[in-house]
Amino acid sequence: MAGQPDLGRADLVTMLAELHARPAAEVPDRIGSMELAWLVHLVEQRYDRQLDLTDDQLAGIRTVDDALVVFRTSLTAPADG
Amino acid sequence: MLFAGRSSDVCLSLPDPVDRATLRRLVTAAQERLTAAGLRSGGAVALRLPPSLAYVVNLLATWRAGGQAILLDHRLTDHEVDRALERLTPQVVVAPVRTGGGALRVFVDVTEGVTPYADRPAVSGHAVIQLSSGSTGPSKVIGRTAADLVAEVHRYTRIDGVALPGERIVLLPSMVHVLGLVGGLLYGLHAGVELVPPQRLSGDAVLAAIAAADSPATVLGVPFHIGLVTATRPDGPLPQFRRMTTGGELVPAAVARAFTDRFGVPLGNMYGMTEVGVIGTDLHGRHRPSITPAPGIEVREVGGELHVSCPASPYVGLTDPTRWSAGWLHTRDAGTVDPDTGLVTVRGRLDSQVSVGGMKVDLTEVETTVAELTGVAAAVVVWDNGITAYVQPDGPLSEEALDTLLAERLAGYKRPRTLHLLDQLPRTTTGKLVRSVDALRTAATP
After folding, report:
1. CA of A20: which chain B residue's CA is closest?
2. A31-34 own/partner pairs: CB under 8 Å, 24+ apart
3. pTM (two decimals)
4. Looking at chain B from residue 412 to 431, which residues have their Cβ under 8 Å from any Cβ of chain A?
5. Domain identity same for B100 and B177
6. In chain A, what residues touch B231 (CB-CB under 8 Å)?
7. Which domain holds residue A37?
8. B383: domain CATH number?
9. Domain count, chain A
10. What total number of domains does chain B contain?
């Protein structure tokens, strides 16, 4: 993953804590479309590549754990498609 | 009003340019389809479309045919849409048959289907009907007349700091809601401002949209979008970037500072409501968090609540005198009006309405929906850094089952982010449900 450590759940929780300006311990597990857009944006910045996600993949994400699975799958796919 | 101008003027960049001649041709074809499906002058069309060229075209075609447009957010569930259609009896419903374009799209590729629905006239003479999350459970039905929309577009033309003819608006808010609809689409078409939705909802895409042409660009969004843009480092200078303007909710001072530190352009602020459109602005970011009333709009404070001049009740159906009376809309926003400068400061809601990414959600609607679910004995929904539901089941009920039931009934942005299932909800000595966030948190702590 381009010299970056593997993406972990704690990373996503930290990103959401930043979005909502609240402690990581108070970040809810469920996420909506706004949180999802925020996570995609920050993950793409961190790995300096665009995540190639489909509408169906995004629609299936309800929780932080769901998002982690989808992001990891996308990050381990070849960057140049 | 909207179609005047040179045929070659570009109205929308998607990113392929859509000029006025193309738009007129598409609208004429859509009008024929709507009429063939049963639309008559004085009837209504329900548009259940995501932001898309199909949405723009069918909206304009509806008006051109003398019809009323009922704007249904595409995120509403079938349950919510069915309730709206039963109340509003459109002659025709337009909904996607196919959508595409990829994830996180701001503007979607849509192939629309046109379906006859009811053979009745529109429920009112309004040009547009919008739904707002309601405090009594069902959505509030809000109507805007053609004259009212025209007046709002003219109001925009008189506000210092809006995008000027020949410039561009990088449009992030949905055109189904008032800021994107009037402040973006209708103002843009009228004034000759090109509308540029970014390719997707990301900071990079917004900056790319700004950089895509030489003409000055204003980014229109809600506060969430400020964070996205500020979290992005531009590849180089962006001399076209004139301003970012957001509406929908207050912007924390630190967020505003981070934005202006990064880009060195003004962060404008707007205050408006679905009922009347834009009420006031601070497009130069000089008076944050206060705003100056828009031309032709009067704002007064009555007992700590802001009232806004609004000649006719915008509500369809029974008019509630606590929401509108004698030419004044009672905003339910707490606020003050400075007697010397006329500056208006909004201080927050006086009711149970909250803003989720710029979308208004009434917690009462969420609570009523949760409480009515099979398997739920009682529920309290509060705002605790997000929509939070405390639920007392009346039998076996898992969080997952509750989630699934809610997903059928409430659009995603209205659904609780945190669910707590409790054997017993806290109650007062007289048996009323307790709504204090602290007491509810304590009750949910094992």
Report:
1. B385
2. A31/A61, A31/A62, A31/A63, A31/A64, A31/A67, A31/B417, A32/B356, A32/B357, A32/B412, A32/B413, A32/B415, A32/B417, A33/A58, A33/B75, A33/B357, A33/B412, A33/B413, A34/B224, A34/B356, A34/B357, A34/B413
3. 0.91
4. 412-413, 415-419
5. no
6. 41-42, 45
7. 9-76
8. 3.30.300.30
9. 1
10. 3
